[in-house]
Write a structure and sequence with these properties.
The chain is α+β, with helices and mostly antiparallel strands. The chain has helices at residues 14-19, 45-52, 60-68, 105-117, 184-194; strands at 5-7, 22-27, 32-37, 40-42, 75-79, 87-97, 121-134, 137-149, 155-166, 170-179, 198-199.
Length: 203
């Protein structure tokens, strides 16, 4: 099987996306839904585990934690063919506990990302944390670049986007990543998908 690297934390022009049929995915027990284009495919748990173990960071400790983690996303989709493409764009939805209250969303999101950025090589904000509203839900958003490596320590520059939706005692996080070169059309596609995310459960 062809080795491939999925861009985490992770390609057509957006005009193609907007014309593409979509399907609505509902996580009814959680009161969540999102609309995904038919050109994206759901990632299985096995694929997720295999792909994350191919990612390496400058911090060996951070890499070890990533590889040993048994945590799986609530929902994950990818764009591209894993048998052909070396790098695949992925969107993950997770529910995470936190000690942050997110009373000040930009400040607390920057605090959260500062804990991650220390382990990432060449971390740099493209858009600093800010508050946004998606389908009536207040969220935090940030866009940043950093470097990932493969097992041979070959470096690749990527751009990661993160959205956090604070709840009481936890938050939903949507994360995506893309190759830095000509990333703008891919980011617009990802953003369009994230803008369909809805939370109907108020707890």
């Amino acid at each position: 099987m062809k080795q491939r690297y999925w861009v985490f934390l992770l390609l057509l022009y957006t005009s193609f996306l907007f014309a593409s049929p979509t399907k609505k995915v509902e996580l009814k027990a959680l009161g969540l839904s999102i609309e995904t284009p038919n050109t994206w495919e759901e990632v299985t748990d096995e694929e997720f585990r295999e792909s994350k173990n191919q990612i390496h960071f400058e911090s060996k400790t951070f890499t070890k934690l990533l590889h040993e983690s048994k945590e799986l996303p609530l929902f994950s989709i990818r764009k591209g063919d894993p048998e052909v493409d070396e790098y695949l764009t992925i969107i993950n939805i997770k529910a995470l506990t936190t000690d942050l209250e997110f009373n000040n969303i930009p400040y607390d999101l920057m605090t959260y990302l500062s804990r991650i950025s220390s382990a990432l090589k060449k971390f740099d904000y493209l858009i600093e944390p800010k508050a946004v509203r998606i389908n009536g839900n207040l969220a935090g958003f940030a866009l940043f670049s950093h470097t990932i490596m493969d097992e041979a320590q070959n470096e690749t520059k990527v751009v990661s986007a993160i959205w956090v939706f604070p709840r009481k005692g936890y938050f939903y996080m949507i994360g995506s990543g893309m190759i830095e070169e000509n990333f703008e059309p891919v980011f617009e596609e990802v953003k369009h998908i994230v803008n369909t995310f809805k939370i109907t459960n108020t707890k």
